[in-house]
Amino acid sequence: MEAVAIRSTASSEPPLMGGGSQPALQSQPAGGRTHRWLRLHRAEFRATLIGLVSLAVFVALWQYLTANRITLYVRFLNIPTPVDVLGRAVIALHNPVFGDHVLISCRRILLGFLLAGGIAVPFGLLMGRYRILREIAFPICEVLRPIPAIAWVPMAIMLWPTNEGSIVFITFLGSFFPILINTLQGMASVDPVLVRAARCLGAREAAVFREVYLPASLPQIFTGLTVGMGVAWVSLIAAEMISGQFGIGYFTWEAYSLVQYSDIALGMITIGLLGLASSFAIRIVGRLVMPWVAPR
Amino acid sequence: MAEKSRGLIEVRDFCLRYETMEGAVEAVSNVSLTVQPGEFVSIIGPSGCGKSTLLNALAGFLKPSSGRVTVDGETISGPSADRGMIFQQYSLFPWMTVRENVEFGLKMRGIRRGERERQARTLLGLAGLTPFEDYYPDRLSGGMKQRVGIVRALATGPRILLLDEPFGALDAQTRLIMQQILTNMWQRLKISVLFVTHDLDEAIFLSDRVYVMTARPGSIKAEIVVPLQRPRQPAMTLSSEFLGLRRGLMSLIREESIRAMGGEVSAEAMKGLAIDLEGQDLAALL
User: Which of A193, A201, A292 sits opposite B81 (nearest CB)?
Assistant: First the structure.
């Protein structure tokens, strides 16, 4: 045997400085908690601050261009100023008709979107699991999918006895395919090892579906829901502008016809805020349903 | 308590063929092996020799083209919680906490929530994993995930445990610790274990017996009894007995690994790039 000399570096060397090797982290100044909190959240502060400044600059630029009626090939002559829009907003908020427009749009979105989710998610899960179903349904989906929901407007009017029905149908169609495609993708990307692990632990078909395929697909399903919600709004507004009698899309289009230019901007901003709120709501639900996914 | 009479694994003339455009290809050819109840047996062999295939047949994921695979005399017809399996890839369910993962097999068996929580807590306590019971797997290290995986597989009280290179993705130090944990668990439970690896030291350190498989089509080339006493200690890996075994296994497996790499590897090729460049740049030559 060969002799191997191993010397422990830790014990054989004298301390570099006589007892003065306290961890640096513990020697924080008093009241350092607030400081530390600020330091740890610096990135968020920065983002919020820059975001606010950039919004303010945007509104200021808008005010400048419209108040001075600038014309740089693009004409800001008839564009309402932010101040005008704010004035109209105050009036509108006191007028129940405006609230009705918003509520009707929200109801259509909710109906169309919930129907789409309620059908596309289970359908996608089944299609992802059973090849025969996929083979039957996929070609039809691929043909229908590229048709924009707006192109369905004439057909929808013929199909549905009420105007309301056809608008909800358009909204439904807009969100259906993004949800379906994403659910399918979620099913396709389920780690087969997890399925095998579940089966080795005694899970039968139904349990594998419920305990593995469904939760494993959830993140992708929620991506589909987010995209679907966006497309639902696009489709709804277009449908309302073409064939509506109520709704925020109709309100915006009507404002143009009635030469109420401030109301156009008000309608647009309202649509933006509603879209923002609905995608935020989906994110919140997603976080509640998928506590294991780290928030981004 | 563990029953000593349970967990006899018998594989007889196991063959696995599959169809390709060029005709039938034999992946595993005439493998016969036995694992006695309570025995720890390893299979080593070059990559692609079909050791994982054999394990998958035992788990019930595929049927032999010919031959028989039985546990306690029963032919395997599909996956079951009677046969626990640990995969090389971490296979904890990311949407379940550590405790929920351990509970999974009990849940599938229809045990009520309160009871399975109690059992899972007990097991996690024994494995020293209590502080992590509410963690999602995402927050665990690789070694920790495999520990939970083992506890999860053992929770339903399987007759045999099948491990498919379970520590392959871990770093060398963690792997040694995991081997020690596994042998300790096995000694306490006296469950039959079939362990697939390509790590010679691991196979010797853990096993009562080691089967060496040939390159594809895989068959059993040799069977080696490991006479090292139990409990095994890490220091044993330096004993002359251990090193002797290692040398023997090494020469057996080396031949097969070379075969698995596509046949003859000449002495020249083993030296590296056996081209005399005569001072020229390789790029200029090509």
Answer: A201
**What's the pLDDT tens digit per position in B188-205?**
888 999 999 989 999 999
Per-residue pLDDT tens digits for A40-54: 888 888 999 999 999
Same domain, A117 and A150: yes
Decide if B278 contacts B285 (C-beta within 8 A). no
Please indicate if any CB of chain B lies within 8 Å of the CB of A155. Answer: no
Residue-range definition of the domain harbouring residue A132:
82-289
pLDDT above 80 (res B284)? no
Structural domain boundaries enclosing B171: 9-92+140-285
The tens digit of pLDDT for each residue in A116-141 reads 999 999 999 999 999 999 999 999 99
> Binning pLDDT at 50, 70 and 90, where does residue A101 land?
very high
- Per-residue confidence (pLDDT) for residue B276, from 0 to 100: 56
Cis peptide before B217 (omega within 30 of 0): yes
A292 touches chain B (CB under 8 A): yes
- DSSP character at residue B234: G
Torsion sign across C-alpha atoms B94, B96, B150, B234:
positive
| Cα gap B60→B53, rounded to integer Å | 11
Give the one of B83, B87, B95 whose C-beta lies nearest to A197's C-beta: B87
- Find chain B residues with C-beta within 8 A of A199's C-beta: 60-61, 78-79
Q: How many domains does chain B contain in total?
A: 1
Q: Which of A49, A79, A109 is a domain's end point?
A: A79
User: The domain that contains B168 carries what CATH number?
Assistant: 3.40.50.300
Q: How far is A190 from chain B (nearest CA, A)?
A: 11
User: Could you report the predicted ipTM of this complex, rounded to two decimals?
Assistant: 0.86
Question: Residue B20 — φ and ψ, nearest 5°?
Answer: -130, 180
